[in-house]
Amino acid sequence: MTDLTFSFRPVDPATDAELLHSWITHPKAAFWMMQDAKLKDIERAYMEIAADEHQQALLGLRDGAPAFLVERYDPVHRELVGLYEPRPGDVGMHFLTPATDTPEHGFTKAVITAVMAHLFEDPAVERVVVEPDVRNKAVHALNAAVGFVAEREIQKPEKEALLSFCTREQFTKAVSA
Predict the structure, then answer these.
(1) What Å distances lie between residue 69 and 8, 37, 94, 153, CA to CA?
(2) What values do phi and psi take at 92, rounded to 5?
(3) Facing residues of 155 across strands?
(4) Are 109 and 142 in contact (CB under 8 A)?
(5) Which of the four pLDDT bands, split at 50, 70 and 90, describes residue 159?
């Protein structure tokens, strides 16, 4: 599975909303907490992200076709404001692989590895911050596999989250092991 290569492009809310709606409202995406979102809600949410200098939504492409979603954010301004002490070079991240009838062993690990590599291509990024739901054991295992270290549980308005960090060095060590 390590032979997978992905590319990234910005989400276009007008043309990608229908696809994102199908991914985000699927029961597999329950931790995105948007199960009841209407198509217009998804389009509006991604228009807001596109207009926000502190956030970015990207589609991960496999052979040119959308394969997963990534959200990058500045934790000084979004998601984690007042919940931890940010450092220069911190970037927040969410990712979603869509549900499929034909699961591919290792695909999601390949995705998170590619996402992390993409984030660390930016020389300003020193550390990636994530805050998944404490109940999302599958993502905790994936995060650990690419070098994340859980720091503590935090209470966000919408969920109890596991605040975790991964430095460039931790990522490099984890994926080269």
Answers:
(1) 9, 17, 8, 25
(2) -95, 155
(3) 160
(4) yes
(5) confident
Tens-digit pLDDT profile for residues 103-113: 889 999 999 99
**Residues in a beta bridge with 69:** 59, 96
**Dihedral angle over CA of 146, 54, 77, 13, nearest 10:** -90
Run of H or E residues at 73: strand 65-73
Q: Identify the bridge partners of residue 62 per DSSP, sorted by sequence position.
A: 65
Half-sphere exposure of 59 (CA within 13 A, CB side): 20
| Token pair belonging to 6 | 């992905």
**Contact criterion met (CB below 8 Å) for 62 and 111:** no
Residue 55 to residue 46: CA distance in whole angstroms: 10
pTM, two decimal places: 0.91
Q: Which of 81, 103, 99 is nearest to 90 (CA)?
A: 81
Task: Quote the CA–CA distance of 20 and 170 in Å, as a whole number.
Answer: 31
**Looking up tokens 């954010």, which residue turns up?**
73
As given in the structure block, the two tokens for residue 112 are 């998170």
Q: Cβ distance 17 to 42 under 8 Å? A: yes
